[in-house]
Write a structure and sequence with these properties.
- The protein is of the alpha/beta class.
- It has 4 helices and 12 strands.
- It folds into 2 domains: 54 residues, no CATH class; 109 residues, no CATH class.
- The strands form 3 sheets. It has a 5-stranded parallel β-sheet, with no helix packed on it.
- Helix 1 runs antiparallel to helix 2.
């Protein structure tokens, strides 16, 4: 975000970006729960870029750089695994052929309440490892000779993360596992 024109009006995207940065900073232990709540409330009601810049001025630049909008995974053969402590973007694109792609959300830093995973998978497997408070929605998937095996319930009260799967599966599988 630019500090060059602090009087400019903030957009929804500007506010969302600052919210993501604040959540990552809290996940890193840089903000207490009370500080996070206070800053989130201010971010969501901010009118200008200057107001938003003040909310992240005391945070390192690396915290802001760690939040990416999109993770693109192109895998042709072999496997791709994302596990441990990693920053979950708002959107992931998976394009795979003859491969296995796995996302483990157990220790991941969730920066948004909704994650959209867009797929183009042929003869591949997508494995999602999560917890009871993750909901997976497959309404956006188009599948041909595919299998989807989920453990999560689609109506968890207040999920930590809602994963929306969309795209195409051709001779592919989507499997959810629990730790």
């Amino acid at each position: 975000m630019s500090n060059e024109q602090p009087g400019l009006r903030a957009s929804h995207e500007d506010r969302d970006r600052v919210v993501d940065v604040l959540r990552v900073a809290a996940g890193d232990g840089r903000l207490s729960a009370d500080e996070l709540d206070s800053r989130l409330e201010t971010a969501l009601s901010a009118q200008t870029l200057g107001e938003l810049a003040e909310l992240t001025a005391d945070l390192p630049v690396t915290a802001m750089a760690q939040v990416k909008d999109v993770l693109v995974v192109e895998q042709h053969g072999g496997r791709y695994v994302r596990e441990g402590r990693w920053y979950v973007p708002a959107r992931i694109e998976v394009r795979s052929q003859h491969s296995r792609v796995a996302f483990d959300f157990t220790d991941a830093v969730i920066t948004s309440g909704v994650l959209r995973i867009e797929t183009e998978m042929v003869h591949s497997k997508l494995v999602i490892v999560g917890a009871q408070d993750i909901v997976i929605d497959t309404d956006g998937l188009s599948s041909t000779y595919a299998k989807v095996k989920l453990r999560s319930k689609s109506h968890v009260g207040d999920p930590r993360l809602r994963i929306e799967l969309a795209g195409t599966l051709l001779h592919a599988k989507v499997i959810e596992k629990r730790r």
